[in-house]
């Protein structure tokens, strides 16, 4: 009986190898992106040797991610992904995980919080913004008595998004040691745990304190995550005032997860089309996933960040910052030039003060909005036996024009089977790999069926892994204009991992599973 079973296993292996030989596709080459964009992904865990990363201040590399600040008094740190630039014409989709935990509260609230920011990709040596309430993004002016606390805002800043636990990032201040524009005159029912957007660096207004790096960065919109009632938000209006906004969060929550699991932020910048070919800035969406594999909560729902933003510079001295006076002057109307740079870079910052906590970030991903999405797959098989894995079952690509009113739809039916590739050598590698041979075995892909086959090496046991990526399809109109760009290399998915476990006992036939083990892009 044992001899008979062995013959069946070898025969199965023979036919599997023959099938792979006949139907597996050979490598080919795809066309370079016409947009010049390539996806980016980094766990940030033990990433101190990554050449594209630089840290500033109290930030440090750890095994769980980049610690922006430890849980101690008066800390300030930043991380720049300064070795990579990203085109802005098609927008951005950003994901990252964060942890806010430990520490000591001040007046019942932990602090301060962290920021994610975008800045001009032409900048080679970015300098982080102000500590404390500035969260490394906005500026801090001061009178001469506190001259050491003056700090310009982030270099060539375009957009800052704060997870502001303490709540001061949104506020206007005019006092001796801290002067910055913002929202004033509001009695907040929920002043803490705010998601807040501030705009780009402003123009030089005068030589009396409102110089380079000390104007602009206006508050665009802010919302607390703690409640759906009361005074929880404000939004900048065209007349430079702030309109009260209400929340309709599907779940209320504190931004601080307090030693729980990491939370995940999803950020979308979608080009705001005013005609078929003309855009005016971006529509910005911010979602936060509060539990693993849970449905993300929409906090900011497509705020229109225009290329021209009227705002008030409302923390002005009566005459100058360069004296010891505390007399405040009149607010002045300004208009911010918020034209997006052709190329963007990004980074993170966090700060603590009298209120403090630990801030950690990890698992950063950058793609274009509506890029294809791959999710990890798992399978098991026996020694000598090949296994077929339908990897596309839990993946999606998009179809339809880019729009926030009628967004494109995601489905595995939109995947272009011919764009599949096993692990690439770099982000700019244009080879489509349809076969990979490793010490564990041979991976092959059939573009007719969308099936990946793993054939173990003779006698191999243990776990084998391989990554892959995909794209959607490009659609053109009758005159050749691209109306659906999802087949461009810029829309290639971030790689997902296929894991195959080789069993050594209880083997009669392969047992295959295809389960989603990573959160899909929203």
Please tell me about this protein's structure.
There is one protein chain. With 522 residues, this protein is mainly beta. 4% of the residues lie in helices and 39% in strands. It is built from one helix and 35 strands. It has one helix at 2-23; strands at 28-29, 40-42, 53-57, 60-62, 65-69, 76-87, 92-104, 113-120, 157-164, 173-175, 178-180, 194-198, 219-224, 233-236, 242-245, 263-273, 279-289, 297-305, 308-313, 332-337, 343-351, 356-367, 377-382, 387-389, 397-399, 409-411, 421-422, 431-432, 435-437, 441-446, 451-456, 462-469, 474-476, 482-485, 496-503. A nine-stranded antiparallel β-sheet has the order 3-6-21-8-9-12-13-14-15, with no helix packed on it. Strands 2, 4, 5, 7, 16, 17, 18 and 22 form an eight-stranded antiparallel β-sheet that branches. Strand 30 (441-446) and strand 31 (451-456) form a beta hairpin. The radius of gyration is 26 Å and the shape is globular.
Write the layout of secondary structure elements.
Layout: H1 2-23, E1 28-29, E2 40-42, E3 53-57, E4 60-62, E5 65-69, E6 76-87, E7 92-104, E8 113-120, E9 157-164, E10 173-175, E11 178-180, E12 194-198, E13 219-224, E14 233-236, E15 242-245, E16 263-273, E17 279-289, E18 297-305, E19 308-313, E20 332-337, E21 343-351, E22 356-367, E23 377-382, E24 387-389, E25 397-399, E26 409-411, E27 421-422, E28 431-432, E29 435-437, E30 441-446, E31 451-456, E32 462-469, E33 474-476, E34 482-485, E35 496-503
Parallel strand pairs: 23-35
Antiparallel strand pairs: 1-28, 2-22, 3-6, 4-5, 5-22, 6-21, 7-16, 7-22, 8-9, 8-21, 9-12, 10-11, 12-13, 13-14, 14-15, 16-17, 17-18, 19-20, 24-31, 25-26, 27-32, 29-30, 30-31, 32-35, 33-34
């Amino acid at each position: 009986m044992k001899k008979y079973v062995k013959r069946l296993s070898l025969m199965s292996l023979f036919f599997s190898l023959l099938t792979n030989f006949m139907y597996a596709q050979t490598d080919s080459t795809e066309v370079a992106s016409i947009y010049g964009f390539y996806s980016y992904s980094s766990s940030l865990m033990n990433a101190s040797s990554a050449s594209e990363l630089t840290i500033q201040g109290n930030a440090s590399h750890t095994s769980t991610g980049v610690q922006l600040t430890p849980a101690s008094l008066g800390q300030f740190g930043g991380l720049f992904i300064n070795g990579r630039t990203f085109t802005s014409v098609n927008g951005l989709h950003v994901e990252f995980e964060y942890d806010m935990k430990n520490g000591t509260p001040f007046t019942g609230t932990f602090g301060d919080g962290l920021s994610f920011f975008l800045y001009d990709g032409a900048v080679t040596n970015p300098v982080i913004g102000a500590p404390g309430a500035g969260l490394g993004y906005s500026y801090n002016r001061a009178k001469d008595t506190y001259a050491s606390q003056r700090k310009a805002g982030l270099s060539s800043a375009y957009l800052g998004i704060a997870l502001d636990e303490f709540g001061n990032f949104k506020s206007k201040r005019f006092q001796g040691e801290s002067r910055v524009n913002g929202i004033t005159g509001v009695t907040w029912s929920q002043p803490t745990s705010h998601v807040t957007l501030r705009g780009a660096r402003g123009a030089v207004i005068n030589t009396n304190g409102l110089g380079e790096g000390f104007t602009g960065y206006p508050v665009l919109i802010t919302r607390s995550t703690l409640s759906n009632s009361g005074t929880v938000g404000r939004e900048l209006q065209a007349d430079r005032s702030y309109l009260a906004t209400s929340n309709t969060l599907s779940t209320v929550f504190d931004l601080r997860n307090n030693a729980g699991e990491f939370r995940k932020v999803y950020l979308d910048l979608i080009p705001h089309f005013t005609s078929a070919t003309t855009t005016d800035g971006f529509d910005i969406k911010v979602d936060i996933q509060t539990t693993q594999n849970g449905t993300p909560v929409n906090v900011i729902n497509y705020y229109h960040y225009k290329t021209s933003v009227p705002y008030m510079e409302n923390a002005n001295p009566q005459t100058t910052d360069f004296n010891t006076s505390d007399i405040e002057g009149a607010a002045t109307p300004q208009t911010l030039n918020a034209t997006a740079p052709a190329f963007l870079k990004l980074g993170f910052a966090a700060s603590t003060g009298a209120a403090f906590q630990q801030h950690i970030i990890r698992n950063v991903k950058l793609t274009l909005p509506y890029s294809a999405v791959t999710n990890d797959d798992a399978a098991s098989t026996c020694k000598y036996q090949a296994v077929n894995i339908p990897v596309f079952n839990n993946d999606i690509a998009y179809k339809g024009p880019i729009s926030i009113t009628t967004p494109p739809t995601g489905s595995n039916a939109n995947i272009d089977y011919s764009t599949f590739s096993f692990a690439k050598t770099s982000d700019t590698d244009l080879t489509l790999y349809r076969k990979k041979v490793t010490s564990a075995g041979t991976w092959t892909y059939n573009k007719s069926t969308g099936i990946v086959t793993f054939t173990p090496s003779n006698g191999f046991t243990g776990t084998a892994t391989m990554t892959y990526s995909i794209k959607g399809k490009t659609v053109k109109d009758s005159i050749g204009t691209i109306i659906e760009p999802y087949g461009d290399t810029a829309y290639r998915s971030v790689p997902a991992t296929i894991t195959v476990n080789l069993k050594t006992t209880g083997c009669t036939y392969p047992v295959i599973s295809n389960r989603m083990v990573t959160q899909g892009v929203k």
